[in-house]
Amino acid sequence: MFGDLFEEDFSFISNNHCGKGKKLKPRESEPPAPRDFTNLSGIKNQGGTCYLNSLLQTLLFTPEFRGEALFSLGPEELGTLDDSRKPDAKVRIIPLQLQRLFAQLLLLDQQAASTTDLTESFGWSSHEEMRQHDVQELNRILFSALETSLVGTSGHDLINRLYHGIVVNQIVCKECKNVSERQEDFLDLTVAVKGVAGLEEALWNMYVEEEYFENDNLYRCGACDKLVEASKSAKLRKLPPFLTISLLRFNFDFEKCERYKETSCYTFPIQINLRPFCEQTEMDDSEYMYELFSVIIHKGGCYGGHYHVYIRDVDELGNWQLQEEEDGLIEEKALRDTENAEEPENPLAVLEGILSEEEAKQIPVDQLGQKLLEKQGMSWNKKYRKQYGALRKYLQNHPQIFQLSPDGNKVSLKETHKLLFKLDSHGQNLQSPSLKKDVHWNCEKNPPRPGAASAGCHWFDLNDSKVQPIKEKDIEKQFQGKESAYMLFYRKAQLKRPPEARGNPRYQIPEHLLNEMSAANTELQKKRAECDSANNGIDLHLHLSSCYKFHNGALHPSLSWKESVVDLTIDRRKTLGDLRQAAFQMLESWEGDMVLSMAKPLPAGLHLYQVLDGDELTLDGVGLADGADIFVWNGKEVGGTKVLTGPEHEPVVLNVLRLAEHNEGGKGQHFSEAQLVFSCSTSLGQLHSALAPAGGIILKNGSGADREAKNWEVFHEEDMKETVRSIGLRDGCSVLILDSHDQSFVNVASGNLTAFTYDISWLQVKNFCGVEEEEKHVKITATIETVMSDIKMKAIRELQLEEELGNESCLRPVGGNGKLLSPVPEDYTVKEAELKMGSLLGLCRGKAPTSTQLFLYFMVGSDQNCSPEMEIVVEETASVRECLNLMLEKSGLSGDNWHLRRLDWCYEAGEALSQENATLKELNVCRGDTLVITEGKLPGKGFLKIPIWWLKPSSHRKHGENAQDQVNGITWKMEALEVSAAAAPPEPTHPGLDLCYAGRIEISGEASLEDLKMQALTLPCCQEQVVPLPSFLRAWTVDSRRPGKLLRDNKRRLSDYRLGARVEICIEPLQEEENLGPHELLLRVQMGIPGERDYCSSRDLVWDISKECTTWALRQRVASHYCLPVDKIEIAKYFPERFEWLPISSWTQQISKRKRRKKQESLQSAPYHLKDGDIIGVKNLLLDDTKDFSTIRDDIGKEKQRQLALEKRKSRQERVQDPFFPEEKLPMKPRKPEVALSINVGVFR
Question: Per CATH, is 347-427 categorized as 1.10.10.10?
Answer without folding.
Answer: yes
